[in-house]
Amino acid sequence: MFFGSASKFDLARALFTLGGVQFGTFDLGPTAGRSPVYINPRVLISYPAALRQIARLIQQEIETDQTRLKPRLASFSAVCGVPMGGLHLATAYAIESNTPMVYVRPGSPDREIEGRVEPGQTILMIDDLMTGGTSIRNTARTLEQAGAKVHDAIVLIDREQGGVPHLHESGYRVMPILGLRAMLTYYYESNLIDKEQYRTSISYLDSTGNALPDDS
Questions:
Q1: Angle 7-11-13 (CA atoms, 0-180°, nearest 5)?
Q2: What is the CA radius of gyration of the chain?
């Protein structure tokens, strides 16, 4: 059931096996509309082995990026889980990498951020699923209001429906680990989904790729 090595497509298969990928008709709000595919990475929180491998996969992606002549990610000294889906991934990564962590509590009347934010500290955001990118943008702005610097986010799965360009326009870079198109292609080529499910889902992504973001 679980992927034994830190591989993107082992992750995709584990998510499928655990029921985190469903096909049908799903109302996902203004950005995603009526979608033929539903992705729920939160099924992984019940499986510590999966979370551990995801943390290692995130660390592997970061280390690979840091070897580039021009890294995509700025150096950081803490991570922040984007509420609510990114919280468990950021926690797993923080423990695996011994990196300080904070998180945002939207709408909290007492304090919006749990954990210690140092003035001028650079924080990397981590989320599980991105559609339009608004949750990441709002988290970044809350951190900035507390005195942090925020440049980048890592997302486990990008639904590829406008999040990357939307956040780029707001001044933030995003590094997805998996894109939905690649996942669907992998599922089809692995005979996990049929041709109609694949074609319907890809056609849907083609029609919504430039959707305006909402709160996802």
A1: 115
A2: 17
CB 201 within 8 A of CB 36: yes
| pLDDT value, residue 213 | 47
Q: Which CATH architecture has domain 8-208?
A: 3-Layer(aba) Sandwich (3.40)
Nearest to 82 by CA among 70, 72, 69, 91: 91
Region of 47 (left: φ > 0; alpha: ψ -120 to 50; beta: rest) is beta
Three-class SS state of 76: coil
What value does the mean pLDDT take over residues 155-176? 92
Sorted by where each begins, the domain ranges of the chain are: 8-208
Token duo for residue 12 = 């995709």
Spatial CA neighbour of 132 closest among 14, 203, 214: 214
Q: Is 102 in contact with 123 (CB distance < 8 Å)?
A: yes
Tokens 């339009």 correspond to 132
pLDDT at residue 70, as a whole number: 86
Q: What is the pTM of this model?
A: 0.89
* Span 72-95, pLDDT tens digits: 888 999 999 998 889 999 999 999
**Is 166 strand, coil or helix?**
helix
More confident residue, 216 or 77: 77
4 compared with 48, residue with greater pLDDT: 48
